[in-house]
Batch of 2 targets.
Target 1
Amino acid sequence: MTPAITRYFDSVEQARSVKYERVRHRGFSLRILSFYEEVDGLVDALNA
């Protein structure tokens, strides 16, 4: 089983900042981060 963590942010800028921090400073792989700025496809991705 793969754990999934979903976070919601007040703004796109805040979400982008967190993504950048995770990738650049904490070494997260872009392959394990999904980033949705629009709701299209989000529900399907969360239910997959």
Target 2
Amino acid sequence: MSLLLSLKENFAPIAIGSEKAPQNLNELRSRLQDAAQVGRARPDLAYYCHWYAEFLDHLRHQEDLSMLQTRGKPRRMWAEQSLIYLDLTQCLRLHSSQMLGWSQALLQEKSQEFGCLLDELAEALEEMKDWNEGCEARCLNCGWSGQVSTCPHCRFHLLKPVRQYGTQQNSYVRLAPLQANLFQAITSVLEGQCDLLALEVPLELMQSRYQKALEEAEANLHLPLAQQALQSIPRALSGLREISRVFQDFDAQHLEDGWSILFQADQALQSNPASPRRDAGSYCEMIVDQVTLTNE
């Protein structure tokens, strides 16, 4: 909130005329209130409204790039916050293009509208700040927190939220069906769409599949793909173990960290020029296929 509502001078518009330019959005609100009180807007005020409209639009696009990497409640809060940015931008653009011809009554009405939107944005920013900085376990669906282990409203386990997101959102790996099921389960838990227990089955299936792949690789060291698998599979299994830690301390950070480890392990396999172009996570089938062909 301080970055947006109390901008330093080097982020503020260049002054037009003899008066100093409003240094932040709160100062711009005061200028608009002054104009409404006297019933007349100065031409430089229309310019400042245009400047801040463009600034807010740019800021929204910049924030969108990072917020799209989040999941669950933070992304939902950003969706609401983004609408406020759009309303503020539209409001200021209307001021910049039409306010010089407005009556005093209209100036007062539009000034109050801008002030209400600004208060709404400040509240939304504060809510986002509290959520991001909080480590208290809460329901990832409704945000409820308390001294019990499950939400009385949603019947979901309370989890500590993710505080740091990985970089795998900017990369691409094709997922095998079991991996896709696990990813969908993780995403659903983080977005508050289902309970933590939904992870148990896909996680167990993945662990069994990777363990089988490891055994196949160890039994067929003469195959190049098996040698590559021996480097990637143990790291993939460590990612699955990291994910399973969520059942011990109910910290959703394990889901993010574990999936990141798993993702990087499979990405390393896919990036190997000697590896067939197959879905990541299905290299146990690749090994079995190659063994079968070799034995034949």
